[in-house]
Every structure is written in structure tokens, then in C-alpha cells.
Write a structure and sequence with these properties.
Elements: H1 3-9, E1 17-19, E2 25-31, H2 39-51, E3 58-59, E4 65-71, H3 75-83, E5 88-89, E6 100-101, H4 115-126, E7 137-140, E8 154-164, H5 174-178, E9 184-187, E10 190-193, H6 203-207, E11 213-223, H7 225-233
Bound molecules: iron/sulfur cluster (SF4) (3 copies).
Length: 235
């Protein structure tokens, strides 16, 4: 069996091998959850690509790397070189594809949930899993939504709900000034939270100089276009 036939029969059923304009070549997409890669792995990707004559690789919008224009005969060796540094083949078709996440509690001051921990668990248990449609999962640690999670089939957003102790409020207005959504307003001289406008970012909680706004606990909101698809198909 030729290398081409072997790849088409075996590897091409996995999404990491993708057809391209040049019928003699394939794009090799890698599995890099959240775009997190060690310097050694990054060097290994560069060296492996260079070894087979590839001058540029592509950093994708789903936080992974694609190596384009790989001739059929060079795919097995490329994958072997990458696996030595624990860089593995990704996914693309009717399966769970590279999972994206923002830095979250690792370094962002707006963060609410530990995106990296969720990311690694989801990747370990679900990456490449066969599905009826292609499933993109994106995780944002706060409602700023840097991973555009609501445009993915499954989106996870970190939320914090403000709970104000009315009796202790001095009416200083700091929280109202902090809220970019204008969800905290004055009603008859008293502060009022408009829940329809509140996006649960939790910024007002940290702003109160008297520490009287409690957080309702970090929670997740799971949304995404999959809900739209399920409704459309009436599943
Ligand atoms: S989604 Fe929020 S926590 Fe994540 S990077 Fe963006 S601003 Fe920071
Ligand atoms: S949680 Fe965010 S959106 Fe809601 S009231 Fe506080 S600052 Fe405004
Ligand atoms: S910052 Fe605190 S004390 Fe000031 S208005 Fe808001 S809840 Fe009341």
C-alpha cells in the first residue's frame, strides 16, 4: 500500500490531516489546547517543519498551529518527530476540535474562573471525540469574552454575581461609577441593580471601599451556537 493510500485510509479519517489546493500535499493541524506550548515544543515544531522544507507555519484562530504543504510521503516522519516532544495531531471534522481558552486566573486581572484547569480537563477527556457535527469549545474567564465563546458550539464564561448588603450601603456611588454596563442606578436616592443590564462581571464587588458587596460565587455559564443548532434541528 502506498504512503498516500495509507494516509488517506487511516490518518485522513482523523481531522488533523486536511486537504489543500495542492492535491499532492496535506495540511497537518496540531493539537495545542489553549495555544499553550513549551519553548521546547515550539522549537520542535519549527525544526520538524524545516526538516521537510516548510518555510512558514500558520498560527490559527483556534490557538493551534498548522503546517501546510506537507507531501504525503513526509507526513509519517513529521508526526514521529513531533510526537517525540509530545506534540500531537489535532482535529478538524465531525469531532471536538482544538479547545481554546483565555489566560484567566493565570494572569488576567478580570478573571473569574480557572480556564487552564477546565481547558486541560476538557482536552484530556474530549479532544478528537467523534460528534454529529464539528464541535468548537471556547472558555473565557469573564464576560469580556476574549475567546468569542458564544460563537463556538460550546462556550463557557466565568461569572460573578454581586450581592449587596443594602443595610450597610453608604450610597457613595463608587460601584455605580465602576459599572461599565450602567447596571447600577439611583432610584429615589437609593442604589438599584438592574439585573437585565448586569453581565455578572463582578467588577463592582471589588470596587466597594466598604467591602459590603459579596460575590455570589464564581459560576459558569455554558452557552454557544450549539443551542441554536439543537433548536433548529428540534432535537
Ligand atoms: S475573557 Fe476576561 S479574563 Fe479572559 S483574557 Fe479576556 S478579559 Fe481577561
Ligand atoms: S457585576 Fe459587573 S455588570 Fe453587574 S453590576 Fe457589577 S459591575 Fe455592573
Ligand atoms: S460602593 Fe459600596 S457603599 Fe458605595 S454605593 Fe456601592 S455598595 Fe454602597
Amino acid at each position: 500500500m502506498s504512503v498516500r493510500t495509507e494516509i488517506q485510509n487511516n490518518l485522513e479519517t482523523r481531522g488533523g490531516i486536511i486537504s489543500e489546493l495542492d492535491k499532492e500535499c496535506r495540511i497537518v493541524r496540531l493539537r495545542i489546547p489553549g495555544g499553550i506550548i513549551t519553548p521546547e515544543q515550539l522549537i520542535a515544531v519549527g525544526k520538524a517543519a524545516k526538516k521537510i522544507g516548510i518555510d512558514t507555519v500558520h498560527l490559527t484562530i483556534r490557538q493551534t498551529i498548522e503546517i501546510p504543504h506537507v507531501p504525503f510521503g513526509k507526513i509519517p516522519g513529521l508526526l514521529r518527530d513531533l510526537e517525540k516532544q509530545e506534540v500531537f495531531l489535532g482535529a478538524e471534522y465531525e469531532e471536538v476540535v482544538n479547545i481554546t481558552a483565555c489566560p484567566g486566573t493565570e494572569r488576567c486581572r478580570f478573571s473569574i474562573i480557572d480556564t487552564r484547569n477546565i481547558l486541560l480537563q476538557l482536552d484530556k477527556n474530549h479532544h478528537g471525540r467523534n460528534m454529529p457535527i464539528r464541535i468548537r469549545i471556547a472558555i473565557s474567564s469573564c464576560p469580556n469574552g476574549c475567546t468569542s465563546e458564544r460563537a463556538s458550539e460550546i462556550g463557557i464564561t466565568g461569572l460573578r454575581t454581586p450581592i449587596r448588603n443594602e443595610g450597610l450601603c453608604t450610597g457613595c456611588g463608587t460601584c455605580a461609577h465602576t459599572c461599565k454596563e450602567k447596571a447600577i442606578i439611583m432610584v429615589n436616592g437609593r442604589l438599584h441593580l438592574d439585573e437585565a443590564l448586569c453581565v455578572n462581571c463582578g467588577m463592582c464587588i471589588d470596587s466597594c471601599p466598604f467591602h459590603i458587596i459579596n460575590a455570589g460565587g464564581a459560576t459558569w455559564c455554558r452557552e454557544g451556537s450549539l443551542l441554536w443548532w439543537i433548536r433548529k434541528k428540534r432535537l
